[in-house]
Amino acid sequence: xxxxxxxxxxxxxxxxxxxxxxxxxxxxxxxxxxxxxxxxxxxxxxxxxxxxxxxxxxxxxxxxxxxxxxxxxxxxxxxxxxxxxxxxxxxxxxxx
Length: 96
Prior knowledge:
Elements: E1 3-11, H1 16-33, E2 37-44, E3 50-56, H2 59-67, H3 74-79, E4 82-91
Antiparallel strand pairs: 1-3, 1-4, 2-3
């Protein structure tokens, strides 16, 4: 089964368009060097927060991408538009 890295954070409405553009660029850059990223899903919840879940084919691929995080200049630029962020890693145990 795949693994995920899930973030939860707030994005100001005024910065959402820029955040989406930066996030798209970040995802493209990560995929260039780490093709194990199979999908990234951003959801706006009813309380106004966002969950951003990135699905990886294996734990090793997720670990390699996390280790390379400092080499992605888009990462701090993207996350600068968020606040109150948390991140968790997990393993998919059932998918239908």
